Amino acid sequence: MSSDADDRTGTQAAIMEATYRALCDHGYADLTIQAIADEFAKSKSLLYYHYDTKDEILVEFLSYMLDQFTVEDAIDTTDSPDDQLWSLIDNFLPASPDPEQHEFQVALLELRSQALSNEAYREQFTRADRLIKDTLADVLTAGIDDGTFRDVDVEPTVSLLASTIDGAMLRRATITGNSTAATREALAQFIEIQLLAEE
Amino acid sequence: MSSDADDRTGTQAAIMEATYRALCDHGYADLTIQAIADEFAKSKSLLYYHYDTKDEILVEFLSYMLDQFTVEDAIDTTDSPDDQLWSLIDNFLPASPDPEQHEFQVALLELRSQALSNEAYREQFTRADRLIKDTLADVLTAGIDDGTFRDVDVEPTVSLLASTIDGAMLRRATITGNSTAATREALAQFIEIQLLAEE
């Protein structure tokens, strides 16, 4: 990679990092390009030169996060398939998110609500859903192949898991007094009864 | 009820009906009090007199809908508990919503995203979640009592059903090409394997 490209990559990473911090601090509604620029140490003019609206930056932020995602970061592929499945559930639906995780999940849901009417956001969340479903499907298929899981239908099982995780996140963020404990308990029963092969 | 109270009730119902139509037509972001007034046949001054912001009307709209909800409208309590459970799933997560149902579900999700940061919306969605969970719990409990369902833990089962329904709705509305067919198929398997008692 040329040093020009290195600079570009370094600058983009720094902008995306600033976007993450600004989003956690302000949420979607109160976010401005200025708030992102305030978090960005170098060349603010670069930021204003490249982006006209906060939505442009945020859509690129979603795309950048998806580009960075690797299965190897999300799960330890030397673990057993049922441990890998729980790693994914813990990752997407933590039992007790720390304050930063919580702020970020709320911000992501605010961005997701833009996908209700904005095609550029919708594209990124469609890509995210595909990535999550593919990862879950890989873990399930590996578990079926090595005898950890029963020979279940992968597509509906993955859809149930993805819907349950998304819904539990939405409920925790929009409903007072709601935790994900009961949903996680029901997921544990589902895995025990419907997924895990008999000993 | 006095005829004054009748008038008030009639006017409120007419305002709420106008709000429903304006919300389906414009969605949350583009909704204005004027758009609601345009759908409201009588006394527009009354509308402007009572409400300062669209959020005031919309929070009252959610509250009004919840006041109108009766279990008897949602399910036929003479049906068997498993038919009642499917009536609820069909109601909240229709396989193929008609265009008006779809517009309204998208609008409801837009209102729900306001609950991420607005306490008045959050109160109404907390009430809605409690109502849905209580209704599901009543159906499950009746089914356990009459032997239709196994003696499952009601609270986690209800949380799984509510999360799955909410997540499938969110995914259908924010992800291109997503239907609820696979999630509904997995719910059918869940009910068959984990809920229904052995013959």
TrEMBL record, chains A, B:
InterPro entries: BetI_C, Homeodomain-like_sf, HTH-type_TetR-like_transc_reg, HTH_TetR, Tet_transcr_reg_TetR-rel_C_sf
Molecular function per GO: DNA-binding transcription factor activity; transcription cis-regulatory region binding
Swiss-Prot/TrEMBL keywords: DNA-binding, Repressor, Transcription, Transcription regulation
Residues annotated as domain HTH tetR-type: 9-69
Residue ranges of coiled coil: none
Top-level lineage group: Archaea
Keyword Transcription regulation: yes
SUPFAM superfamilies listed in its UniProt record: Homeodomain-like, Tetracyclin repressor-like, C-terminal domain
DNA-binding region location: 32-51
PANTHER family referenced in this protein's UniProt entry, alphabetically: HTH-TYPE TRANSCRIPTIONAL REGULATOR BETI, HTH-TYPE TRANSCRIPTIONAL REGULATOR RUTR
Protein name, as recorded: Regulatory protein TetR
Lineage start: Archaea, Methanobacteriati, Methanobacteriota, Stenosarchaea group, Halobacteria
